[in-house]
Design goal:
With 368 residues, the protein is α/β, with parallel strands linked by helices. Helix content is 50%, strand content 11%. The protein folds into two domains: 149 residues, Rossmann fold (3-Layer(aba) Sandwich); 112 residues, Dehydroquinate synthase-like, alpha domain (Up-down Bundle), CATH 1.20.1090. The protein contains 16 helices and eight strands. Helix 6 runs antiparallel to helix 8 and helix 6 packs across helix 9. The protein is globular, with a radius of gyration of 20 Å. The mean pLDDT is 94.
């Protein structure tokens, strides 16, 4: 058997989305265990607790809470696990709620406790809810490692009434994070790369990536205009599915390339490191397109879309106070440390990134 020909595909076990979906949490938990714990920060707790507690109570389950404070560090996770074990029965189901930090902390706690996992995102800011991957940081907010759960989440419950009230910046970040999936996946396929399940991409993964891109292009503007409404509109529901489900399936089952590689280099500039992940990735995708040699017409089309959504096309738009050659060299050097660089149509050197970033900064974006 040729291992290079083995295709692989993985996914969350169950996915539920819509207004009021939080009411399904108790049923999901009851199918997995008897001792649930909610892992989130205090702001998210105040947002979701009433619905989660009521849903669990309907299944005759009491709910404990572990408070997330700050970054996902080994020390923070160890402290939460010690708290979980010291206060009654050890939890057998973790409900990881919130944005990136809350969900990743919940994943880390679930792995440490050997518990099942239900994810309850409160924004569509990234593709993490359906994924088995999570990130550890050090005490200085620097990426330490990308970790893996033994399996994908048992259930992902997306209550769009929570998401439609989230800040606009988080939804824009989610759009940036999801937009790259088709293009990074295509590069991974061209390079014969492996996905997160150790196999090559499937037809399903490619078509999910295509659908993700199509929905973003069609519905992003209308979905953004609906933010703050009492109920999500149809465009918001479609976009949420693209950003949470389709994007998550696409990146795990296709692979990552240059856009995500740049998140290793951009934090070398503190102001850029402070930018939301999806905004970093959106800028990285612009650099990837330059490295691919995309046409002027293609780049002009992307510029119009980026402008309409509010995605950054240059380092200045991403937050750099002053762009210079030393900054670009530093970012390029950091990017070269990414494991995803092998997922590209040709080998790349630091000088390639410098040249591509300089071209991006020099582009003249005329009004659409």
């Amino acid at each position: 058997m040729n291992a290079s020909e083995i295709r692989a595909f993985g996914a969350a076990h169950r996915y539920f989305q819509g207004p009021g979906a939080v009411a399904l949490i108790g049923e999901c938990v009851a199918s997995l265990g008897r001792h649930p714990v909610l892992v989130c920060d205090i702001i998210v707790r105040d947002l979701v607790q009433a619905g989660v507690v009521a849903s669990c109570a309907a299944q005759s389950q009491s709910l404990r809470w572990l408070e997330v404070r700050g970054d996902v560090t080994h020390a923070a996770v160890a402290a939460l696990c010690a708290e979980a074990r010291a206060d009654g029965a050890t939890p057998d189901v973790v409900i990881a709620a919130g944005g990136g930090k809350g969900v990743d902390t919940g994943k880390a706690v679930a792995r440490e406790l050997g518990a099942r996992l239900v994810v309850l995102p409160t924004s569509a800011s990234n593709d993490g809810p359906c994924s088995k991957a999570f990130v550890f940081y050090d005490d200085h907010h620097r990426l330490l490692s990308v970790e893996q759960l033994p399996r994908n989440p048992d259930a992902v419950v997306v209550d769009t009434r929570f998401l439609v009230r989230a800040p606009r910046a988080l939804l824009v970040s989610g759009i940036g994070d999801a937009l790259c999936k088709l293009y990074e996946g295509d590069q991974t396929r061209l390079a014969g790369g492996r996905n997160l399940f150790g196999g090559v991409s499937t037809i399903a993964a490619e078509q999910l990536s295509v659908a993700c891109d199509r929905v973003i292009r069609a519905d992003a503007e209308a979905a953004l205009s609906s933010l703050g409404a009492a109920e999500p509109n149809a465009a918001f529901e479609r976009l949420t599915e693209a950003l949470v489900l389709l994007s998550g399936l696409a990146f795990e089952n296709s692979g990552l390339s240059i856009a995500h590689s740049m998140t290793r280099g951009l934090p070398r500039v503190p102001e850029l490191g402070a930018a939301l992940h999806g905004l970093q990735v959106a800028y990285g995708l612009y650099v990837q397109w330059q490295l691919e040699g995309r046409s002027e017409a293609f780049m002009a089309q992307q510029a119009r879309f980026y402008r309409a959504i509010g995605l950054p096309r240059t380092l200045a738009e991403l937050g750099a106070p002053e762009v210079n050659d030393a900054m670009i060299e530093s970012i390029a050097a950091g990017t070269m440390q990414s494991p995803h660089l092998k997922h590209f149509q040709r080998p790349l050197a630091q000088a390639d990134f410098v040249a591509a970033m300089q071209r991006v900064e020099a582009l003249s974006f005329s009004p659409a």
